[in-house]
Specification:
By secondary structure, the chain is of the alpha/beta class. It is built from 9 helices and 6 strands, in the order βαβαβαβααβααβαα. Bound molecules: adenosine-5'-triphosphate and nicotinate mononucleotide. Catalyzes the reversible adenylation of nicotinate mononucleotide (NaMN) to nicotinic acid adenine dinucleotide (NaAD).
């Protein structure tokens, strides 16, 4: 069987250590050899990003240049429509075949609002979910029904993620990294330093292109 292919979708406005360090820890925890970053185009559910799609991709490329775990898939940027994850996963599933184990990586905040995603109940037919902890977010789902749904899919057996094509949820034991892109943009707007929050090559790009200006 082909090895587990993990995708990590995000707005990455900008990419930061909360993304990179947690997913590196996740990769060790469950044995991921490669993680594909999937920047979205028109986020379906939130205000539009401050940086352009091209700038967000440029920052992702700089961040992963010396991190061989990661590669990049820009397919969502080639569609001028909202980036619905279920549609992207359908496309990947069609390309990779029914038996390929696929996983989508999210943070705990995304898990808590997953039931608001487009056709969210079909996600589990298409992929596993690998959930990284994030400080400040509840560990239980917002309703008993959703908590039951989570328990039905949850596995504690990492090898099952590599053996089954889809349908499992892994609640990772990754480090809590208190960094968000919102906070980085706010710090930049206020003229504060962001030195330990994201790679220096990305900070240089932000400075050079005058992003997130005060
Ligand atoms: N510090 C973090 N720890 C764990 N997961 C994270 C962290 N930051 C982001 N993520 C996860 O990464 C994915 C992409 O996040 P995104 O690019 O929106 O970053 P963000 O910091 O949440 O941005 P914003 O503050 O603009 O919403 C989401 O699933 C999110 O839950
Ligand atoms: O498909 C949806 O309806 C949907 C709703 C919210 C978020 N997503 C995806 O989840 C990933 C993380 O989103 P975000 O906003 O935290 O960057 C990113 O790939 C988004 O496109 C997808």
């Amino acid at each position: 069987m082909a090895s587990l292919h993990a995708l990590f979708g995000g707005t990455f406005d900008p990419i930061h250590y909360g993304h990179l360090k947690t997913v590196q820890a996740l990769a060790l925890e469950v044995g991921l050899r490669q993680v594909t970053l999937l920047p979205n185009n028109v986020p379906p559910h939130r205000p539009q990003p401050e940086a352009s799609a091209a700038q967000r991709v440029a920052m992702v490329k700089l961040a992963i240049a010396d991190r061989p775990l990661f590669n990049l898939d820009t397919r969502e940027l080639e569609r001028e429509a909202p980036s619905y994850t279920v549609e992207t996963l359908e496309q990947l599933r069609a390309e990779r075949g029914a038996q390929q184990p696929l996983a989508f990586i999210i943070g705990q905040d995304s898990l808590l609002s997953l039931h608001k995603w487009h056709r969210w109940q079909q996600l589990m037919d298409l992929c596993h979910l690998l959930v990284c902890q994030r400080p400040g977010y509840d560990r239980t789902m917002p309703t008993p029904d959703l908590q039951r749904w989570l328990r039905q899919h949850q596995t504690q057996d990492a090898s099952a993620l590599h053996q089954q094509p889809a349908g499992l949820i892994w609640l990772a034991d990754t480090p809590l990294v208190p960094i968000s892109a919102t906070d980085i943009r706010r710090r930049r707007h206020q003229g504060l330093s962001c030195d330990d929050l994201l790679p220096s090559a990305v900070i240089d790009y932000i400075n050079h292109h005058g992003l997130y200006r005060p």
